[in-house]
Design brief:
The complex is a heterotrimer of chains A (about 575), B (about 325) and C (about 300).
Chain A: H1 2-25, E1 36-40, H2 60-64, E2 72-74, E3 99-101, E4 104-111, E5 114-119, E6 124-125, E7 135-136, H3 139-150, E8 163-170, E9 173-178, H4 185-191, E10 219-225, E11 229-234, E12 241-244, E13 247-250, E14 256-260, H5 265-273, E15 279-283, H6 285-294, E16 299-304, E17 307-313, H7 323-332, H8 335-342, E18 347-348, H9 370-375, H10 380-389, E19 396-403, H11 407-421, E20 425-432, H12 434-442, E21 449-455, H13 459-467, H14 481-492, H15 496-513, E22 516-518, E23 521-528, E24 532-533, H16 547-552, E25 554-555, H17 557-562
Parallel strand pairs in A: 1-14, 1-15, 19-20, 19-21
Antiparallel strand pairs in A: 2-3, 4-5, 5-9, 6-7, 8-9, 10-11, 11-14, 12-13, 15-23, 16-23, 17-21, 17-22, 18-23, 24-25
Chain B: H1 2-29, H2 34-38, H3 47-57, H4 63-75, H5 89-124, H6 129-143, H7 146-161, H8 176-211, H9 213-221, H10 225-236, H11 238-247, H12 249-254, H13 257-262, H14 268-277, H15 281-309
Helix pairs in contact in B: 1-15, 5-6, 5-8, 5-15, 6-8, 7-8, 8-10, 8-11, 11-15, 14-15
Chain C: H1 17-30, H2 32-49, H3 51-54, H4 86-122, H5 124-138, H6 142-153, H7 157-185, H8 187-195, H9 199-235, H10 247-252, H11 254-257, H12 264-291
Helix pairs in contact in C: 1-2, 2-4, 2-12, 4-5, 4-7, 4-9, 4-12, 5-7, 6-7, 7-9, 8-9, 9-12
The chains are: A alpha+beta (about 575), B mainly alpha (about 325), C mainly alpha (about 300).
């Protein structure tokens, strides 16, 4: 049974190679319309949690970004696939030159604190029975969307503090009056998690109900089965065009995008292998080799995860209030060994809180001071000495919480426990169900050791949310007025060169003060079937927002048939 | 009989009261409440933020008041709206129940078609090799954890032959073939794991029957044993059937969480799991209550049917 | 999760030597499969009891250099993703699984007897109240109930034992109650009452000994059911916390994750679990045939 298939497959593969060689010599392929793409997204195990932007939910953009557009989005013409330098896999960071106006056609600073945005003309909301008649998007929609977000009780309380007011100057011009400059302005209400532009009609309908969702984007939501699937259909009146081989094409190319929710890892890997998923966006390294072997047709791209991995050590409590103890923990764990052996080399030693993709902000470990490099090394003898100095000659036992939802962390924690036991530190492991786990952190009642993942977001947010006083996602309860001051300062700094310097300095300082046990960051893999075209594993065209990427993919129906699907 | 049914129905009331209390309060005891989750992205949340959201969701009133409001409207068939999606819970229940029910029903069919023949055979040939082999098959299906069997069935055919069952739900009425090609595998696995209980019950019953005097008499008279047993099995066959239905009622209505998870069946179990993890109280309470009432009614029907099937059973 | 299962020789009343020996010899003579099941179970039980002596390594002795090594002379069953010896973990996991199943099944049996005897013997309002609560408890799917309760109390060896004990104990009380009622109605109980014997004496001397066969079979059904339930909980991430191994968590956790890179990781715990549950089941069925042929399969 196996061999004939293998043979057929290798024949197909050989044909494919010939085909690709031929294609390279010819003009780019003519895109094809139609078809459905089934996608196992980055959050394949999670359904949409909310459809209403005023819920301020982190995942919302991923699900609504298909139909709600924003002022800015990624300039996908700058992707590696098109000869640019960006892979667009970062969770929520777009460097200035990777940014384009989406609903915004152009923008300028009238005064240092007055931003004027000119909207594109002729962008229309489609008809939605019971919600609205088709009409053109205008400046009032932008103003409405802003104030609607601003008024939500779930709002991040300081999020829009830099904005004094937002006004419509005319039908296609929006004016943002700033009360102070904030370097994240384009992220916060432009391409970020909380930047969706909804129609004014949302004021009169139940915006939480998915049946009422309607936006200007490339797709419209047509079905939602919680915990199973979200179906988006092509918006035939979508305004944007894709340039391919000097030609302009109407998009989206495909008729339907289907987000599949599959809870079980074995199942979603099988679904990819049997072509029931066209794309699987997040694959753990463990499965990669086997998938490549059994399904050689798949195309792959990998990138360092845009989520950090660390064990937070509560600096407000004994024993981790002493920096020597925290450093000892770092010295006692062999991160190199974890990266090379536990992750089988599919990981890098240092990539958090700064991501290597944050060009200009990231400094490699090798050029950091020795005291930082030491933390990523392995020196249990020194760790033991530090513990003795700190007054723990016999070590101690401490509670460590971990989310049972993370297979990777559940695998990692016994390993950390065993490393630490060699310097007399013992972990009392407490695996928790996700919601309970999360709420111990947000209510700051979590254990002294807390193994977790946290997104980089972008260079400024990464440091602000993790290490400034009172922040929700500051699991080591780190608090130092000097750090708070530095963070506030770089948020106000307009010069990028200066800002990069400040952020690099603070990153070094924070690494050195070891509020976390720093752990290696693994590579994350994306695989897709070769019939998915005009795609190279891009994940986000904004903050967790893949909509514009999916709008540009097309299916090579003939190739799909040739491969037997 | 009528008086008996009425008495039984009245007895459901205290049970339902206990059940509704368990349901309503237990979900609220789980650490990490819905407000914590809703505010989890909030950089710096304040007490005011909390109070505002609680008020918007109606969670600011005393829990006792909330309980009575919930019971009041639940009796009218209104289970409230999902805290996250704002869609009526009853709508979700109506969408999910047929799916779990179909899975459960198919599993029952599989279970019975394995259990009854094996049960009868192993009783007739007690302690023979055939008895041991058939019984072992049924017991092995019970002894292998369902998640493991499910995983093997999911993974290996896909590696060897690039085959897997359909992994997307299609309503039966829309496309029966597609629907069955998805449901049949989890239903078979579920049915096999259920079969041991019924097999054992059938077997015990047959053993008992075969010791009865009239069978011995008949045998002495030379009536064919097989004929006798088959006739008897047919007459008594319905008892294990209804007992199995009673036992599996929670699965029939409440869904089989693990199978639903592995085989991507959007049934009640998965809905409940999602609702528990997002602390969607009205959904959790609604699912539990509907499952509870359904199970009670099925059990009542099962008890009543014993009386019809077997005149020896008297309802005290 | 409503799996029916079986018994063990360990729990037979020891004082009455004669009947036990007689039962065993009948078992071996007439029920070879059941006897084999009992023997297999005994072997696993002994391995569990002496796991600490038998295990060549500690359960959490990690060594990344030796990770994911297939079975060899140094590591008879290979090593896992952290370089831990699988044999040692299977042995210690067996011990933990046995502890969980025996304690939870024991607790369940105790609760079943308590509720069943009180409810069945006294009847009336007490019976009514207890039975309605039992009804309320039993209408929920077992696994779902476990998920909610474990989310509340947190996972842990003791919590799991108590919860599984409660779950199966309450469910089983029905069966005990049923046979208590039958026994109560029988003549000799009436006779004892009329002579003026006090209630505790009647319960102890007349009721309890007569429900013992039911209880023994009930206990046996629970041992296997608990092992499977713990595995189900592990699958949902709510089992016994790491680094402690159980067969269920080894199979559902690393066994599944690393099934491509190290198939042996799943093989050993999976086989142990299946064999043990199967063995107790055939053993229990045999005991049931011998002790109480009329007992019908029930929760």
């Amino acid at each position: 049974m196996r061999d004939p298939i293998r043979n057929r497959l290798s024949l197909v593969a050989a044909l494919l190679i010939l085909f690709c060689l031929g294609a390279g010599a010819q003009a780019p392929e003519e895109p094809q319309y139609g078809g459905t793409l089934d996608i196992g997204t980055v959050t394949v195990t999670l359904s949409a949690l909310s459809w209403d932007p005023t819920d301020w939910n982190w995942k919302l953009n991923h699900d609504t970004g298909m139909f709600y557009e924003q002022l800015f989005a990624a300039d996908l013409e700058k992707s590696v696939r098109k000869g640019g330098k960006y892979i667009f896999r970062s969770e929520a960071y777009l460097p200035d030159d990777a940014l384009r106006g989406e609903l915004a056609e152009s923008w300028e600073w009238e005064t240092p604190l007055t931003l004027v945005i000119h909207l594109r003309r002729g962008i229309r909301f489609p008809d939605k029975p019971g919600v609205m008649k088709s009409r053109e998007l205008d400046a009032e929609d932008v103003v409405f969307s802003y104030y609607r977000l601003d008024a939500s009780p779930k709002k991040i309380s300081t999020y829009f503090d830099h904005i004094a007011k937002v006004e419509a100057r005319d039908k296609h011009t929006v004016v943002f009056e700033f009360s102070e400059f904030n370097v994240e302005w384009a992220y916060r209400f432009g391409y970020g998690y909380y930047s969706a532009i909804v129609p004014r009609e949302m004021a009169d309908v139940d915006a939480k109900n998915w049946r009422n969702a309607v936006g200007t984007g490339p797709f419209q939501l047509t079905d939602f089965i919680q915990g199973h699937s979200q179906t988006y259909q092509r918006n035939p009146a979508y305004w944007d065009r894709e340039k391919l081989g000097g030609q302009q094409y109407e998009i989206p190319f495909v008729d339907e995008i289907n987000y599949r929710t599959i809870k079980d890892e074995a199942t979603f890997l099988t679904a990819l292998r049997t072509g029931k998923l066209d794309i699987l966006e997040a694959i753990r390294w463990i499965a990669v080799d086997h998938l490549k072997e059994t399904t050689p047709e798949l195309k792959w791209v990998r990138s360092l995860s845009s989520v950090g991995n660390f064990m937070a050590l509560r600096t407000d409590q004994k024993p981790f209030d002493d920096v020597r103890v925290r450093r000892a923990i770092n010295l006692a764990v062999n991160q190199r060994e974890i990266a090379d052996l536990f992750y089988g080399g599919h990981a890098e030693l240092f990539a958090y809180p700064m991501h290597p993709d944050f060009t200009g902000y990231f400094e490699p470990l090798e050029s950091m001071p020795a005291s930082v490099q030491e933390l990523f090394g392995y020196d249990p003898a020194k760790a033991k000495r530090l513990l003795v100095e700190a007054g723990y000659p016999d070590g101690f036992t401490v509670k460590a919480q971990v989310c049972s939802c993370s297979p990777s962390n559940m695998d990692l924690i016994p390993l950390i426990d065993d490393y630490l036991s060699k310097i007399g530190v013992h972990l009392e492991i407490d695996p928790m169900e996700h919601a309970a786990y999360l709420s111990t952190m947000t209510s700051k009642t979590h254990a002294p050791a807390y193994l977790m993942n946290s997104g980089h977001v972008n260079p400024t947010t990464s440091l602000r949310k993790s290490f400034t006083t009172g922040q929700q996602w500051n699991p080591s309860i780190f608090s130092d007025p000097d750090v708070d001051r530095q963070v506030a300062e770089f948020h106000r700094t307009r010069s990028e060169i200066l800002r990069q310097r400040m952020i690099k300095d603070l990153t070094v300082e924070m690494l050195d003060r070891a509020p976390y046990l720093w752990l290696p960051i693994q590579y994350s893999y994306t695989a897709w079937w070769p019939w998915v075209k005009n795609y190279n594993g891009e994940l986000r065209a904004g903050a967790v927002r893949p909509g514009p990427i999916y709008a540009r993919m097309w299916i090579d129906h003939k190739l799909k048939k040739e491969l037997g699907f | 009989m009528q008086a008996y049914i009425i008495r039984r129905l009245l007895a459901l009331i205290p049970t339902l009261i206990f059940a509704s209390v368990i349901v309503f309060f237990s979900i609220r005891l789980i650490p990490g409440d819905v407000i914590d989750l809703m505010l989890s992205q909030n950089d710096i949340s304040t007490g005011q933020d909390r109070a505002n959201i609680e008020a918007a969701l109606g969670l600011d009133r005393p829990v006792i008041v909330q309980y009575f409001r919930w019971v009041g409207s639940a009796m009218m068939g209104d289970f409230g709206n999902s805290l996250w999606q704002n869609t009526p819970v009853s709508e979700q229940l109506l969408a999910r129940m047929p799916i779990s029910f179909e899975l459960g029903l198919l599993a029952l069919i599989v279970a019975l078609s394995v259990a009854l023949p094996i049960g009868v055979y192993s009783a007739m040939r007690q302690d023979s090799l055939g008895d041991y082999i058939t019984r072992s098959f049924s017991l092995l299906m019970l002894a292998i954890p369902s998640f493991w069997l499910g995983t093997l069935v999911m993974v290996f055919p896909s590696v060897w032959w690039r085959w897997s069952p359909a992994l997307e739900y299609t309503p039966f009425l829309e496309d029966p073939i597609k629907n069955l090609s998805h449901m049949i595998v989890p239903a078979t696995l579920l049915g096999l794991s259920m079969s041991a209980v019924t097999m054992r019950m059938t077997r015990t019953m047959m053993l008992e029957v075969m010791r009865q005097d009239y069978i011995r008499t008949a045998r002495a008279k030379g009536v064919g044993e097989v004929l006798l047993v088959v006739r008897h099995a047919l007459r008594n066959g319905l008892i294990p059937v209804v007992t199995l239905i009673g036992l599996q009622a929670p699965v029939l209505i409440g869904g089989a969480v693990i199978m639903e998870q592995i085989f991507v069946v959007p049934g009640m179990g998965l809905l409940l799991l999602e609702a528990v993890s997002s602390r969607d109280y009205p959904v959790v309470s609604g699912v539990f209550l509907v499952v509870g009432v359904g199970v009670l009614l099925i059990n009542l029907a099962v008890d009543l049917s014993y009386g019809l099937l077997d005149p020896k059973v008297r309802h005290q | 999760m409503t799996s029916e299962t079986v018994v063990t020789t360990m729990e037979l009343p020891r004082k009455r030597r004669g009947p036990v020996v007689e039962l065993l010899s009948r078992l071996i003579r007439t029920k070879p499969l059941g006897a084999a099941g009992g023997l297999i179970f005994l072997v696993f039980l002994l391995a569990g009891i002496f796991a600490d002596l038998l295990a060549p390594f500690g359960m959490n002795d990690t060594n990344l250099v030796h990770r994911l090594e297939p079975p060899s002379l140094a590591f008879l069953l290979g090593t896992d993703h952290l370089g831990r010896d699988v044999l040692s973990r299977v042995l210690i996991g067996g011990q933990i699984s046995m502890i969980v199943s025996f304690c939870a099944a024991g607790l369940a049996t105790f609760i079943s007897i308590l509720l069943g005897v009180v409810s069945g013997y006294f009847g009336g309002r007490i019976d009514m109240l207890i039975q309605r609560m039992v009804d309320a408890w039993m209408i929920f799917p077992g696994l779902v109930l476990l998920i909610v309760v474990i989310s509340i109390v947190g996972p842990g060896l003791v919590q799991i034992i108590v919860i599984l004990g409660l779950l199966y104990g309450i469910a089983g009380s029905r069966i005990v109650r049923g046979s208590v009622i039958t026994i109560r109605e029988q003549m000799y109980t009436h006779a004892a009452q009329s002579i003026g014997a006090r209630t505790p004496r009647i319960l102890w001397r007349h009721i309890l000994p007569n429900v013992m066969p039911v209880v023994i079979v009930l206990f046996s059904t629970r041992v296997g059911a608990v092992i499977l339930a713990e595995a189900g909980l592990s699958f949902l991430g709510l089992g016994v916390p790491p680094p402690a191994p159980t067969w269920g968590s080894m199979l559902s956790g690393t066994g599944r994750t690393y099934m491509y890179l190290g198939p042996w990781l799943a093989l050993a715990p999976g086989l142990c679990l299946t064999i043990v549950v199967y063995a107790i089941n055939v053993f229990g069925d045999a005991l049931r045939d011998l002790l109480d042929p009329r007992m019908r399969g029930s929760r």
